[in-house]
Write a structure and sequence with these properties.
15 helices; four-stranded antiparallel β-sheet; alpha/beta; single chain; Sulfatase_N; ten-stranded mixed β-sheet
Length: 500
């Protein structure tokens, strides 16, 4: 009995010490979040030109989600995912305009002035936890590397307040689409990048020809920092959020990959874009190899996803679509890659091609290998799922719900619906595949109804045939939009003017 009590006492002491040290109950998490990656660009979803074997390996060894929705545009997608609120809500997060850090780089503003101008728009619009705070509460080390946080400009104060132990990357979207940054921000401090000369991060052609310092490509900088973060925290529970700006335009790479160099089907711009997508896949492979080499594979959840649907940075001028009676289809010949997987529409629209995204979770021994999850899922479900995984209580009522049971191969009840905004108006998709999409611009009051299980390409509007269904879904969508459908329209003109 005495021996039993001693063992029990030792166990309780160890458990107490572990709790005091903030030992996390779950795995390390690496979340690779791509920018404008249409699901059709991945060979797992049918891509024929660009091989993506490493992402395929994630899917074959883990779970592919086939019915998951991001947002129609990058900034609301990121804010929605990180806060756990849908992007049709009013006042749950603020999206600042881009450009204020360009003014800093040009000497027009100091960094304290930048912080001051952004401060009023970052403080308390989200009263509860954001994603990194969930991990912090569970005892994790948190890091973000790449296209930082949400909105089109992010303050250093916001990065610190949201619980990032380490961050490196862009704080302004005007800087993050050129791939050759003049400055990156590391834990609040500007870091000058040797060889890069332009505030907008575009390559300087004269410097490329004559400069002594070789220009440095953003993705290479990001991967170096990501490796360092993982290695330095290999003995601690860590969360790495890696929001790469690939394969967002403009099309730009240091060199075309040899796999595509001799392809007669592709233009030079298409070869460069294919190289950008392949670089994403190569880096996924690098993450997997690093985790395996450190002996962390069985205790690391790798998540791969995208913010929104596909966009044609590599094609010429495209035909105009009214997005009411006419819509874009890749396989009409306008897109050599079929990047939106045959879905209607592109980024910025509330067609499926603008909002349905790739999403894969890989955790050997925990997530069933080679499975396809067809439950209805939203990008804003991630926070609730991670809180469920880590046994963290979230104080405020989020729009997201946990899909952890289905992720672990157990039965679960899918959510009733998903909602998302667009430049035209909001839309709603139900668990049984009914979709109500709106067009509310220019005094229009258009509601279209589609049944996605029997109409993958959204070609047959059923609103006249099922008016009662339209009315019931309209009520659900209006409720989700806090009582006004106009909350689901994205307007650049309504963003706070912080840059000047």
């Amino acid at each position: 009995m005495k021996k039993y009590l001693l063992c029990l006492s030792a166990f309780l002491v160890a458990a107490t010490v572990q709790a005091q040290q903030g030992k996390a109950p779950g795995p390390n998490v690496i979340f690779i979040y791509t920018d404008d990656m249409g699901r059709g660009m991945l060979s797992e979803y049918g891509q024929q030109i660009v091989p993506t074997p490493n992402i395929d390996k994630l899917a074959h060894g883990g779970m592919r989600f086939d019915n998951i929705y991001g947002s129609m545009f990058c900034a609301p997608a990121r804010a929605s995912m990180l806060t756990g609120y849908s992007d049709v809500r009013k006042g749950k997060f603020t999206l600042n305009r881009a450009g204020i850090y360009i003014n800093y780089l040009q000497g027009k503003l100091t960094l304290p002035e930048v912080d001051e101008r952004l401060a009023p728009f970052e403080q308390s619009e989200h009263p509860g936890m954001v994603l990194p705070q969930v991990f912090k509460k569970a005892g994790y080390v948190t890091g973000e590397i790449g296209k930082l946080e949400w909105g089109f400009a992010t303050s250093r104060r916001q990065m610190a307040a949201h619980g990032w132990d380490y961050y490196y990357g862009y704080l302004d979207h005007r800087m993050c689409h050129g791939f050759y940054p003049m400055v990156m921000f590391e834990n609040g401090e500007p870091v000058r990048i040797a060889g890069n000369t332009r505030p907008d991060s575009y390559p300087d052609s004269a410097a490329l020809r004559n400069g002594k310092e070789k220009p440095q490509y953003a993705e290479h900088l990001f991967m170096d920092k990501a490796r360092r973060f993982i290695v330095s925290n290999k003995d601690k529970p860590f969360f790495l959020y890696y929001p790469t700006n690939l394969p967002h335009g403009p099309v730009s790479v240091p060199a075309i990959d040899p796999v595509f160099a001799g392809n007669p089907r592709l233009t030079e711009r298409q070869k460069m874009y294919a190289t950008m997508v392949k670089m994403v896949d190569d880096n996924v492979g690098a993450f997997m190899h690093l985790v395996d080499s450190l002996g962390l594979s069985k205790n690391t959840l790798i998540i791969f996803g995208s913010d929104n649907g596909h966009w044609l940075y590599y094609e010429g001028k495209q035909p105009r679509y009214d997005n009411i009676t006419t819509r874009f289809y890749s396989d009409d010949g306008a897109d050599v890659f079929n990047g939106n997987n045959g879905l209607a529409g592109l980024k910025e629209t509330n067609w499926e091609g603008g909002v349905r995204v790739p999403f894969i979770c890989y955790w050997p021994g925990k997530v069933p290998a080679g499975t396809v999850n067809r439950n209805l899922v939203a990008g804003y479900d991630l926070l609730s799922t991670m809180a469920d995984l880590l046994q963290v209580q979230v104080p405020d009522r989020k729009d997201g719900r946990s899909y952890l049971p289905s992720l672990l191969g157990k039965k679960s009840v899918p959510r009733d619906n998903v909602v998302f905004s667009s430049f035209m108006g909001p839309a709603l998709v139900t668990r049984d595949g009914w979709k109500l999409r709106t067009c509310l611009l220019d005094n229009k009051n258009i509601f279209q109804l589609y049944h996605l299980p029997t109409d993958y390409r959204e070609m047959k509007d059923l609103s006249a045939q099922y008016p009662q269904k339209v009315d019931s879904l309209k009520r659900e969508l209006t409720k989700a939009c806090d009582g006004q459908l106009q909350h689901g329209i994205f307007y650049f003109s309504r963003l706070p003017a912080t840059a000047l």
